[in-house]
Write a structure and sequence with these properties.
The chain is an alpha+beta fold and 423 residues long. The protein is 48% helix and 10% strand. It has two domains: 145 residues, Cytochrome P450 (Cytochrome p450, Orthogonal Bundle), CATH 1.10.630; 257 residues, Cytochrome p450 (Orthogonal Bundle), CATH 1.10.630.10. The protein contains 18 helices and 14 strands. The strands form five sheets. It has a five-stranded mixed β-sheet with strand order 1-2-10-7-3. The chain has a three-stranded antiparallel β-sheet with strand order 4-14-11. A two-stranded antiparallel sheet has the order 5-6. The termini are far apart.
């Protein structure tokens, strides 16, 4: 394999190719690499841990307001003027596509809802939900781990925190799949990628528009109420800001945990010695969860656009050029992690980039860690002999390291809410 053979815009490569071999080569030969496979569609591929941190910690140079993913950013390329209106929907309105100082001010509206102390009150309830999820499949002896287990918990928790009634949970799950899987035929249903994403967004916006009106009149303790009635410098968010941040919360709240759970369970199945340690030694649970996050890296890359000229490892970054942090590569960087390709549940230190870094460090990281810990503990405790029952199906995406389907089998056992209550 040569550098010119690597195409990080080829989504099929992320389904069936050896991406880690490609990233190892890039880190060795060109850790900051101008990647252009189509005229006008170039970007700087940043694959080393050290350089990724430089980008994350320099929002004055590397802006979030022009999009955060190649998946939705085809309109931005070399020569784009950073002073032009950002092309990505939600730019400057969603927290994730807003630069400091406004980013931190908007974030403060709901930040206190995600502190370790605030989410600790959900722990027993999350255990209860996880027990019910396992109860629903444990007597069958087989299931699709992604659809039947991994996706259920974050969908339930996120919807409850946002005040969304249960009858709309499936709609939110389906819309999130379509929003993230715009380039995947399973979710396109004959539409183009853009049509798929726009249809999903319109469906979510339509629902939240009604919920926002209800919360204006009757506020509650949910996240939508917080966004509706919160203020930034004495002013409330406008309607579109509220809608885009609701959209962000419902998508992000489901995706990271779902894919870390699926990828983590796959890693445990493929590494039986580590799985045995996970089941037997509760003292390693915190380091184990961090290793699952590093090893799976659910968000493969994060994009920035140069607001002004800059420099990385001697390369001149021009104003308007795209700069892409490949988290999936940085988390396997040999200079930052000992034996990075090994799945080591006692790895320490482990300052991975699965949640990003700097100002945009994932708001829901504490909640995601709790959900991941609970569902993996519950699944491995109550279904100790889980194994693959067929090939897995990966999401056709270079943005999310997702598994769509993962058939598993196990010894059928009796479902019991009393069993889950003891977790």
């Amino acid at each position: 394999m040569k550098l010119d053979d690597i195409d990080l815009t080829n989504l099929d490569f992320f389904v069936s190719g050896d991406t880690q071999a490609a990233f190892r080569l890039m880190r060795k030969e060109a850790p900051v690499y101008w990647h252009e496979r189509k005229p006008g569609q170039g970007f700087w591929a940043v694959t080393s841990y050290e350089d990724a941190l430089k980008v994350y910690h320099d929002p004055a140079t590397y802006s979030s307001e022009y999009g955060i993913s190649l998946q939705f950013n085809d309109a931005v390329g070399e020569g784009t003027e950073a002073g032009q209106d950002p092309p990505q929907y939600g730019a400057g309105m969603m927290m994730i596509t807003t630069d400091p100082p406004r980013h931190s001010r908007v974030r403060q509206i709901i930040n206190r809802r995600f502190t370790p102390r605030a989410i600790s009150v959900y722990q027993s309830h999350i255990h209860k939900i996880a027990g019910e999820i396992i109860d629903a499949v444990i007597e069958k002896g087989e299931c699709d781990f992604v659809v039947d287990i991994a996706a259920k918990l974050p969908t339930a928790v996120t919807c409850e925190m946002m005040g969304i009634p249960r009858e709309y949970w499936q709609m939110m799950f389906d819309a999130t799949n379509a929003s993230i899987g715009t380039d995947d035929p399973e979710y396109q249903q004959g539409r183009t990628a853009r049509e798929t994403g726009e249809a999903a967004q319109a469906q979510v916006f339509s629902y939240f528009s009604q919920l926002i009106e209800e919360r204006k009149k009757s506020p509650g303790e949910d996240l939508v109420s917080a966004l509706v009635h919160g203020e930034v410098e004495g002013s409330k968010l406008n309607e579109m800001e509220i809608l885009f941040n609701c959209f962000l919360l419902i998508v992000a709240g489901q995706e990271t945990t779902r894919n870390a759970t699926s990828g983590g369970m796959l890693a445990l199945i493929e590494n039986p010695r580590e799985a045995a340690r996970f089941k037997a030694d509760k003292s390693i649970i915190d380091t184990a969860i961090e290793e699952v996050l590093r090893y799976t890296t659910p968000v493969t890359h994060i994009l920035r656009v140069a607001r002004q000229d800059g420099e990385l490892r001697g390369h001149k970054i021009k104003r308007g050029q795209r700069v892409v942090n490949w988290n999936v590569s940085a988390n396997r960087d040999e200079t930052a992690f000992r034996q990075p390709d090994a799945f080591d549940l006692t790895r320490t230190p482990n300052d991975h980039l699965a949640f990003g870094h700097g100002e945009h460090f994932c708001l829901g990281a504490n909640l995601a860690r709790m959900e991941l810990r609970v569902i993996l503990e519950e699944a491995t405790r109550r279904i100790p002999d889980m194994e693959l029952a067929g090939p897995i199906e990966r999401l056709r995406s270079n943005f999310v390291a997702g598994i769509k389907h993962m058939p598993v089998r196990f010894t059928p056992r009796r479902a019991t809410s009393n069993d889950s209550a003891r977790a």
